[in-house]
Request: fold
Amino acid sequence: MLPPVPLMGWLFAGALIARKHPRTGMGLSVSGLILLWLSCSLAPAVLIQDWLLKPPAALSPATLDTLSRRSTAEHPVAIVMLGGGRDPMAADYGQANLSEVSMTRLRYGVWLARHSHLPMAYSGGVGWAQAGETSEAVIADRILREEYSLEPRWLEPRSRDTEENARLTMPLLMRDGVEHIILVTHALHMPRALRQFETAAAGQIQITPAPVSELSLDDIPLLNWMPSGSGMKAMHAALHELIGLWVTT
Reply:
């Protein structure tokens, strides 16, 4: 469903139709090329983020401080980090490792924990399209202990997608009296994650979003409309979340 596959089919259809209907085929080919160009550009991804996904603003220091002071031993405020993929065997480390997406979320969760002294939770198993048995949560636990000297209080290692992140993590937190969480994930992913976690919380746990890596435009406007590897990656992520949000509506 995501570029470039549909657009390749669009261009192929244009080439076939052009044999009998040159003008129609040419129109399809030109429009397909334009869409392919836009699917590799940063500016359309930012527009999808700002106009359609509308992620919440970044967590402010004042809000973090307020939540830190509100946390108690009986009813702690938890920092919940969502997995975003892992490498079953990273050759450079000689063992399984978290993906760049997951590490970005983990690092921000660590930053929040060190500035607030709030307990952490990590949710992530083995995704539907992944192989291997070592879950993201197990890898994250190892990284937190070995590289950050931190120990997560809750680990959820069985989820395969965002819906399962929420459905399997919430009972762990409720069991320990958690009534408020700080949810850490990418800005593009946050609208869908919030929807799933609010459904799983059923009004029993409050959720404060803490999005990371919001898309932003380059300083040189023309570059935002030029095809690039980073633009293709941003558009793929934005369209993935837009489709996911519609599917879960």
